[in-house]
Amino acid sequence: MRPTSGERAFGSINTLLMIGLCVVMLYPFIYVLFASLSDAASFIQHRGIMLRPAGFNLDAYRAVFDNPMIARGYRNTLLYVVLGTSINLFMTALGAYVLSRPNLYFKNAVMFFIVVTMVFHGGLIPTYLLVNQLGMMNSMWALLIPTAINTFNLIIMRTAFQGIPVSLDESARMDGANDWTILFRIVLPLSMPVVAVMILWYAVGHWNSFFSALVYLRDREAYPLQLVLREILIANDTDSMMTDAGASDKYAIGETIKYATIIVSTLPIICLYPFLQKYFVKGVMIGAIKE
């Protein structure tokens, strides 16, 4: 059937609105990119919308990559992301598998206490005291162990596991498989879209996390990249990255360094997301529809 004039007008308006929304969402990132590539003096003098770099210059990126804290922060963040996401996925899969079994005793009561933690939690001070008493202060375990399981992700993965036919479980048990074999040989391979979504959510969470490191870490050698970025952006700590600049140029160069640091810290996640995007909607729908 040919669309009516009203349907064509509706489609055109929707298209224009989506294009406008994309521009509004993309322009801040484009502005930061152009600012990081701009000449410091020209950028300070620029006013209004930026549609191209104000004098192409890579000095800001040279200063960023020459800063040892950036490289150290990258190394620490990659360690926290890989190790933390592995712990998150393993613990969440174990909890979701147990809670998805139909013969689990007191399953509703256990789920009630788990869901309650989404509304009520101990808070910062009790958590700090607990981490301190467990001897995890000033170590990476203070960043990884307290956040080993996210309740919302646990519920989504549990719901996805419940959608797997029980007959597969029964057939595997008749062949002598135990719960470990069923989880890692049957349940997880059949739930790869949800697993990909969990990896994305947990990895992005670890990559962007800075508050836990700010609270629990004292050794600057263990700082993640986001905490280094916070010092540069909020504490305005760019003087150590401009050893050759004069006093009059430090402010201008410092501004471009801030934008270059933002690009350097966000680029890996932006590059990773397209490879997991195809699983994203499917994984969320699997975890949201089946109850």
Sum up the structure in keywords:
Carbohydrate ABC transporter permease; 2 domains; globular; transmembrane; about 75% helix; mainly alpha; MetI-like_sf; membrane; MetI-like fold; about 290 residues
Compact overview of the structure:
With 291 residues, the chain is mainly α. Helix content is 73%, strand content 0%. It has 2 domains: 5-45; 67-237, MetI-like (MetI-like fold).
**Spans with pLDDT under 50 lasting ≥5 residues?**
none
Residue share in helix: over 70%
How would you sum up the global shape? globular
CATH structural architecture of the largest domain = Orthogonal Bundle
Order of helices and strands: HHHHHHHHHHHHHH
Head-to-tail CA distance between termini: 38 Å
Count of discrete structural domains: 2
Report the C-alpha radius of gyration, rounded. 24 Å
- Under CATH at level 1, the class of the largest domain stands as Mainly Alpha
Report the sheet with the most strands, covering strand number, pairing sense and barrel closure: none
Average pLDDT, to the nearest integer? 82
Structural class call reads mainly alpha
Please count the helical segments: 14
Number of strands: 0
Name the CATH superfamily assignment of the largest domain.
MetI-like
CATH fold-level name of the largest domain: MetI-like fold
Strand content: under 5%
